[in-house]
Amino acid sequence: MKLSLSLARTLGAVLALSAGAELLAQGTFPPLGIDTMQTSSMFSVTINGFNYFANVSDPSTMVGRSAATTDGNAAAVPVATGACVVCQPTIADADITCWAPGMGGPGTRREVRVEMLSLNMCGTTSGGLQVCYKAGQPAWNELNALGQAGLYRNSFGEVQSNNSTGAPNTDFPAQSSWSIHGIVTIFPAPAGTSGVFYTTVPACMNFGNVPSFPPPSGLTNYGNVTGTVLPDGGGGACGALPIALFDAASGLLVGQINSNVTHIIGLVGIPTMQSWVVAIGVVVVIAFAIYLLRRRTPRLAVSG
After folding, report:
1. Alpha-carbon distance 196 to 249, whole Å?
2. Which end of the chain is more exposed for a tag (fewer CB within 10 A), N or C?
3. Peptide bond into 188 cis (omega under 30)
């Protein structure tokens, strides 16, 4: 029993250290502005029956955000757009076409509306092809180069406080939900395609514990969820992968974004401070257990 109690106490200390960032997460939403961060994804698409997989990343993803508002305000609010000429300067609830579970009221809940200004995650497949997932200005640029700028759709989202009382000093931690209208590019282009592929429906990406703007590297892992077309779980289902891909030049259905996709703030596969703390803590727990076991192991006296 003493050994189990000691292990539990040591493990508890390790978990407390690894959760330190969350313990410091409380705070107020910042004013209107732009956040720049590194993002990455383990990304997989299928085009004409062939699978393309790559760890894609973008060193400078840009997100525009509004000042804080409340869930009771469905009207358009200003959002920072920076150098994005195709981005929308205001966002209303009606502009967000897919909502993650849990997003919504009560009306006192504080929130921030967000727009993807620039997402340009690229990586290389094992066969040497470049695969990219793009939204915001980079997506429009690709479509416009093919004379198909009309296919572009903005990507909007919302970050809402997990505290529903409306107290500003507890805006964080918060839930973040995105309705992403992205495009995929592959270079060299697969045979018989333009190499630029668009979607007609959004992907719903969600993370339930955002501690700050921008979210900290390595602690934020967005996952795909089935959302609804209205907040508070209203309307039909939307946003779940796989999502169909169409060739931007011909409009033909050619493939899909596969379901095994995540979106990470930071780099895929790079150990973070939190993971190092946990790893070191596990080593400490094991070493301490061995020490206690040795102390409790009876020693045999040998006489000659």
Report:
1. 8
2. C
3. yes
